[in-house]
Amino acid sequence: MKTYHGSCHCGAVRFTVDADLTEGMRCNCSYCKRKGMLLAFIPKSQVTIEEGGETLTTYLFNKKVINHQFCSICGVQPFGHSGDTMAINLNCIADEDLDHTTLTIKEINGKSF
Ligand SMILES: [Zn+2]
Fold first, then answer.
1. Full-model pTM
2. What b/e readout covers 72-100, taking b as 16+ CB neighbours within 10 angstroms?
3. Residue 112, CB half-sphere, CA atoms under 13 Å: how many?
4. Rounded to the nearest whole angstrom, what is the distance from the C-alpha of residue 112 to the centroid of ligand 1?
């Protein structure tokens, strides 16, 4: 496994992910589509919020089971979580840690959930 560094846009929120990131998922639900997120689902134990946890704001919608977390300063959403799983926004991972051109992109039909 590799350690990937991620942050929101302003840098207030910083986190690391221990994983082997090979695929990204695009979700067509009303929320992810608007945000343009590219997701990877990772066990919570492999994600560490290094800085700025207190800056995060949580948004809930629909069945209110996913905590969508975004930075209250810059508005960028680095991740969301539900139960023991975190949905990492791969667009928030540092370019030097993850080359997006190597990812397999999968479409998920979140609209139907
Ligand atoms: Zn920010």
1. 0.93
2. eeeebbbbbbeeeebbbbbbbbeeeebee
3. 3
4. 30
